[in-house]
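subagent[fold] <- orchestrator: predict structure for attached chain, return tokens only, no commentary.
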Amino acid sequence: MLSKTARDELEKQHYRIVGDHSAVKTCGWTKKMLKGEGGCYKLKFYGIMSHQCMQMTTSISCANRCTFCWRGYKAPVSKEWKWQVNDPEMIFEESKKAHEKLLLGYGGNAKVTKSMYTQSKDIKHVALSLTGEPIIYPRMNELIGMFNRDGISTFLVTNAQYAEQIRDLKPITQLYISVDAPNKELLKQVDVPLFPDYWERLNQSLDYMRQKKQRTCIRLTCIRGINMVEPENYAALIERGNPDFLEVKAYMFVGASRERLSMDNMPSHADVLAFTKQLTKYLPDYEIVSEHKPSRVFMLAKKKFKRNGKWFTWIDFPKYHELALQGDDFTTEDYLKVTPKTGIDDSEIKVDEKTEELEFWKAQENQVTI
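subagent[fold] -> orchestrator:
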């Protein structure tokens, strides 16, 4: 899949290539949490421990050339799988080894406590969203089964160009679909898809999302001056997919996207909030639950997840794994936990062994002892 030049370039960018088509890279939030500088939005919104999260993909190739993506245009693109299919057990084991090697230097970092570093070796979460389109890996369900077996939660992001794979996907902790524009013409401009029927594929994917029993989320990446328009049409797409949660997030001016967009296209946190509020006018079943300012993202949830004045958007991970190993006859409501911090304010959650906030997070996420 990768030429030597492309492989070398990715290695310089701190990717580690696994087999012929997979890759691992340490997330910045994993590093930050190890140093006591706070966790990612998935900690605040859903309760993951960022220092125990592995970021990877099972396919470096993609069927889109999204303008806002940090990938360079030299990265492989394809509509079909054309490569050797690596064994999922190999991907599973070698990805974990690569992740641990990438974190080796933190063992001697003065800002990292020994307990935090030790815990980072015990992977509890995987974000299948690094680069490319992970869902097209032909043996994805087998790999998901291995993560479920080992108590590793799965957050998978897809660009909605492979509807049948979404339909056939076995239970995962949370499925994301990226909806990058509110109409067909703008989606072509933003995503630069290879498939001529890209719009139909998106809508079919949303139909299959609607049929899922477990947690689902639609993500909007906001690009100022380009796709922050027509909230009513975004709302129609969202209602078609009927997700449990929404994430409205700012485009970040990073990587190769700087060759295609400008700094002016990166909205402020206030810009994203204003657009999110416009969106909620057309989504009566949803409400803004929380925000994460460093990521410029807002999370919305269906109002049914608010019970007796408390939101339940966090995940009971042990319960999820118990249910997943039993089969697929369970729903989002079966593995919910109370969300400890909600609302829009000026504070940010940080994890530091010397602060009282640490005790707060210990009490909420009892399967992790920090």
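orchestrator: received. Logging for downstream: Residues 4-364 form a domain with the TIM Barrel fold (CATH 3.20.20.70). The CA atoms of residues 39 and 138 lie 32 Å apart.
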